[in-house]
Amino acid sequence: MTENLFKWKHYESGIIVLCIRWYLEYPLSYRMLVEMMAERGLKVTHTTIMRWVHQYSPILDERIRNRVKKTKDSWRMDETYLKIKGKNAYLYRAVDSDGNTVDFYVSENRDKNAARKFFKKSVKAPHNQQRRVITTDKYGATEIAILEEIYYGSLSCKTQYRMTKYLNNIIEQDHRFIKKKINPMLGFHSYESALKTICGIEIMHMIRKGQVEGIQCVHSEVSVINEVLGIGA
């Protein structure tokens, strides 16, 4: 029997998923969604929508990843900052040579350990193949992290490492789409809320870039998301 992810919810599953999808995909605030739902005769609070996003985004991320198309073996890796509890935190991200998302990692610190955790996470993702080239900026901690991951075997000893800033324009441009969504939030209240929200934003960004099998338009996007969350099954 398929697990009912929406059991005991006060709203229909279709309404819940609609709010989640709109919030993660477009630069909308929770309060904007409250007003949009009110126009449809639905009374829902912004904290309720926030709880939906935090609950279902990790599930969506986990289940959609099994459908993500293979990325190429040339990576562009970089980090951008965000605010957690009023302090700077960091979002590590990588794309391949075609601009497809490789993976992401949220860290409260920008250091060697954070970069190593990003690489450990990315190499486990089923849509990523063995890295041939990794390109970064000239931040020293990232260089050490890559060398250590090669030494300990997480990265192949054949991996070519380049520190060429202009080649990383593609990842810096890709950051903009994520920041366009994150910046209006004015920061996250906790590391956990940041992680849960960003994983949903990243997976919707991957969908938008055409990285998910079976999704060619907004109608197929809705269909696949409903399917993975067990709606209409």
From TrEMBL:
It holds the Pfam family DDE_Tnp_IS240. Residues 73-211 form the DDE domain. It comes from the Bacteria. Keywords: DNA recombination, DNA-binding, Transposition. SUPFAM superfamilies: Ribonuclease H-like (SSF53098). The keyword DNA-binding applies. GO terms for molecular function: DNA binding. This is IS6 family transposase. It comes from Alkalibacter rhizosphaerae.
